[in-house]
Amino acid sequence: MSQSRDFGETYDVIIVGAGPAGMTAAMYAGRSMLRTIVLERGVSGGELLNTEIIEDYPGFEHIEGWDLAQKFESHAKKFGAEFVQETVLTLTKLTDGAFKGLFEAATESGNSYLARTAIVTSGGTPIKLNVPGELEYAGKGVSYCAICDGAFFKGHTLAVVGGGDAAVEESDFLTRYGQKVYLIHRREELRASKILQKRLFENPKIEVIWNSVVEKIEADEQGLVNNIVLRDVNTHAARNLAATGIFVFIGFRPNTGIIVGHVDHDEMGYVRTDMNMETSIKGLFAAGDVRVQLTRQITTAAGDGTTAAIAAEKYLAAMRRQGDEPEIVATGGYAV
Ligand code: NAP
After folding, report:
1. Best of 52, 250, 268 to mutate for ligand 1, by most ligand atoms within 8 A of CB?
2. By alpha-carbon position, which residue is closest to atom 31 of ligand 1?
3. Is residue 185 helix, strand or coil?
4. Per-residue three-class SS string for 81-140
5. Can you name the residues that pair with 92 across neighbouring β-strands?
6. Distance 240 CA to ligand 1 centre (A)
7. pLDDT digits over 5-34, tens only?
8. Of 258, 319, 227, 243, whose CA–CA distance to 120 is shortest?
9. Would you report the helix, strand and coil content of the chain in percent, each value rounded to 5?
């Protein structure tokens, strides 16, 4: 049985996700006079909201992540991009029916948005340790966001897990609140950039626990974290760390579930694109943390977003020239 599904107007570009890649793409698409809609499940900013101070975005020697996110959003809106809070469940290129050739973003609230091209910029989600106590005590001492939760831990002894840029940078940030921060790393060498490492080693409130992994997170009778069981990977000896907060920064996975069934991707779910950010589906672009690439920086996300928007514009122009543009033959609902 078919049911009628409502949708609004048809756009030139649907952008899924309002992080640096999505908002830059929106700004460029808007400047190209494309009808642009950005669908974001939460507050605009993406990974910018997980970074307190940003020092590596050119032109801003020192800016709060929140502030930069606001600037990105207002800049994109200035050029006409529309922002709507929606959780996209699927993004599909329609292969038949009245809207053949258009992309449909179907959302959790039951809405459908249609566009001639789509750009996926939905970022990533933190990887979990998968140890006992982690999920149980999430929000009760286990956190994945220092800027969101750090202030709850004034005067506490804290642990940070990981050896990349995020772990090292956030360890430094957490010393604003914690009286002591232990950085737990599974090897004896950090992969974080040298400038961040230098800051870490110069901070007297931070101690690195090398060659160690978290085996278990324990809590008091109120369910608040009070101990972390560590295992030395060389000696196999266990030790207790009496920390009341544990911040996990061991990387993240791309949020590509809405398209991963249809497009070419790697074993981790990162989407493969060509140099124009186009995926294996014509007219579908991916930018920022969702795609296979060397690094994930604000600058690279913004660069990807720029390329994706310009490529989308060229794709639409070529379709128009060839007379291939998907035709809108009806409005106000269609059968699914
Ligand atoms: P990452 O660079 O992938 O580092 C993940 C860290 O977690 C690695 O040190 C890894 O150890 C460790 N790890 C992975 N799985 C683990 C497990 N199960 N148990 C214990 N440790 C585990 O991730 P990230 O730090 O989130 O950074 C992601 C990207 O964002 C990077 O490209 C980074 O440069 C960028 N970033 C940049 C900045 C900045 O420039 N300011 C800030 C944050 C993030 P091994 O080293 O042994 O593999």
Report:
1. 250
2. 296
3. coil
4. CEEEECCEEEEEECCCCCCCCCEEEEECCCCEEEEEEEEECCCEEECCCCCCCCCCCECC
5. 104
6. 24
7. 455 679 999 999 999 999 999 999 999 999
8. 258
9. 25, 30, 45
pLDDT digits (tens, 9 = 90+) for 246-290: 999 999 899 999 998 899 999 989 999 999 999 999 999 999 999
Please compute, for residue 131, the number of CA atoms within 13 A of its CA located in the half-sphere on the CB side.
15
Q: Is 163 in the pocket of ligand 1 (CB under 6 A)?
A: yes
Joined together, the tokens standing for residue 293 give: 């690439």
73 near 23, Cβ under 8 Å?
A: yes
**What is the C-alpha R_g of the chain?**
22
Structure token pair of residue 15: 């952008």
- How many angstroms from the chain centroid is the CA of residue 121? 8
Q: Which of 191, 212, 216 has most ligand 1 atoms within 8 Å of its beta carbon, as the pocket-test mutant?
A: 191
**Residue with token string 């497009």:** 263
pLDDT digits 0-9 by tens, 306-329:
999 999 999 999 999 988 766 544
For ligand 1, say whether the CB of 170 is within 6 Å of any of its atoms. Answer: no
Q: Is 260 exposed, middle or buried (0-12, 13-18, 19+ CB in 10 A)?
A: middle
The confidence band for 148, taking pLDDT boundaries of 50, 70 and 90, is confident
Give the position of tokens 């809207």.
99
**Ligand 1, closest atom to CA 165?**
25
d(CA 210, CA 229): 14
3-state secondary structure of 49: helix
Residue 319 identity (one-letter amino acid): M
Q: Where are the alpha helices (DSSP H) in the chain?
A: 20-31, 65-78, 146-149, 165-174, 194-202, 298-322
Report d(CA 218, CA 121) in Å as an integer.
36
CB 45 within 8 A of CB 22: no
